Amino acid sequence: xxxxxxxxxxxxxxxxxxxxxxxxxxxxxxxxxxxxxxxxxxxxxxxxxxxxxxxxxxxxxxxxxxxxxxxxxxxxxxxxxxxxxxxxxxxxxxxxxxxxxxxxxxxxxxxxxxxxxxxxxxxxxxxxxxxxxxxxxxxxxxxxxxxxxxxxxxxxxxxxxxxxxxxxxxxxxxxxxxxxxxxxxxxxxxxxxxxxxxxxxxxxxxxxxxxxxxxxxxxxxxxxxxxxxxxxx
Length: 233
Known about the structure:
This protein is an alpha+beta fold. It contains 4 helices and 4 strands, in the order αααββββα. It holds the Pfam family AKAP28.
């Protein structure tokens, strides 16, 4: 606005007062100088506008950079906090496991063993020492007897599933196989030897030496579900 006001004043001076004072020739010269001055002022105004526009762009770029820096800082802080929480949870889990006492039961002597008594002891061991959610249901049955050179082995199977109201018949089950071994050469008063293995796994677990984990059952069922979904008929 100040620039336009200055131009108007110059035009007024050149066309009125100067013509009256100096005459036509001098007035023409004054008009030429005024025109040059107007062009210079116009160029200066355009330059100032460009500089102001560039300054505005620079400020916007700085604001965008600041926003990007704030976002990166926030993401970094969240990552660090999440890592610290996970580390603390892992340490707490280790402490709980270190304080955990692995349970066991008093197994019967070899001389008192029967197939049904063996199944009952397996159920007793599961109910008293294993920790799992109440939604899990299981049932056990006797599979076979195996005769070895120095002992007899009795094989049992315990099936696990989580039936629901919508699906009372589960799509998949997880099996744990128990083996009771009766020695032919050891004193009959010694307790029976028991160990178990997970379905699709040959690692041997022994009561009183390992802690049962509910995750074992979940992993078995999940792997079966994935396999069934991958099969198309």
